[in-house]
Amino acid sequence: MARGSRQFVGEEPKSEASAVPPHSSSGDAPRNRFLPRFNHNGHEVTKGIEPEGESGRKGVHPIKFLRICFRSTSRLSKSVNVLWPVVPAAIAVHFARPDWHLAIFVLNYIAMVPAANLIGFAGQELARKVPKVFGVIMETTLGSIVEIVLFMVLIKKGDGNVPVIKAAILGSILANLLLCLGTCFIAGGLHHDEQSFHEVVSEVGSGLMLVAGMGLVAPAVFSKAVTSSELNQSGLLTAFDAQTLKISRATAVILLFSYMVFIFFQTKTHDGLYGEVLEADEAKDRDRQHDLAKDKLTFTECVVALLIAIACVSLIAIFLVEQIEFLVKERGVSDAFVGLILLPLVEKAAEHLTAVDEAFDNQMNFALAHVLGASVQTALFNTPLVIIVGWGLGVHMDLNFEIFDAVMLILAILVVGSFLRDGKSNYLEGVLCVLVYMIIAICAFYYPNPAERCEYTGCL
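The structure assignment produced for this chain is given below.
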């Protein structure tokens, strides 16, 4: 094909007549009905791949693969990749010195960050190859793999880890809504006095979070109400505990259904609206030309990177979870602090880095889509999933959260909702969100475990 006849992205497709060779008769079947497309880097676009995700290569090229993965999505993500030597060190120490409990926990905690970052980067590269709305959903889902793996490892260990899982569920949402969103507001405020975002992203996200928060805490409110009533004195507490478990499982099924409706809303009925909002946001990206020109992973390399990262995350999660008992019993760290603060910080590292970089580049709609999308997925998908898996394993996993955790969640949703209501953000709102998160972290650090509360106050 002649160079002059290339069809670049953004041009109108050639008509069928222009694609038919001049010498062909009207009865002949036209060949080359459509001319191939070429993206911004001059690479021919593969069928089924979006132009922005076209790498111009196929298969796996080890040197390019390593170089592209190390460069990652931004300078912040690239700086995290210097921690990769900690990954083999953490695995080696687990097998070589199993009695070094604190060292194993610390090394695996650090090792989780680069492994999670690779999942985030590979997910972002894969998301570039599909339509934008579906890509954001895919990227958010892949970013939650670390959280899902941690939940599954914890629930497999039995009833002893249920308090940590409950705290981690709410801690993940709090880290997204307060710490990550606050940091996004601060990062965006460094270059702009005020940033704006579309109501379809902010209002739908904050509204869903309020409904999800109500669904999550309803079983806890039921349990606390019947426990503190006169019914507790009549020996019916065990029966109501079983009812709380049934309510939690029914709620999990309802929340899972609501997540499916939300996905259908985004990808089918209102995909055009979301697509327009995200495309308009891309036009505001300060370094868009640089991002487009960067080398990209092939589809195969994306899959390989995801498999490597998920394998590392799974091992690290197992080693990390095994040390939680030591941390709680020997070091006196509360279940609330481990679940509410420590685990969410490391499991959401990749999503936080991505969202902060997008806010810094003035892509607040993308940042909000990742922050609120991750929170919605934790509340409406990951939580029901761990409830249902626990149901299958015979583990007493319910939604009877500590009243402290439940109240903090609802207050955080209300605080963030008030900041999103006007469709604008600034660094002051970001600082306030981070400060609220710090207050919750301090409270969680001193929050006693159930056994300690029984020792000081007595248990009925």
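Interim note for the steering committee: The CA atoms of residues 203 and 421 lie 7 Å apart. Confidence is low (pLDDT under 50) at residues 1-33, 453-460.
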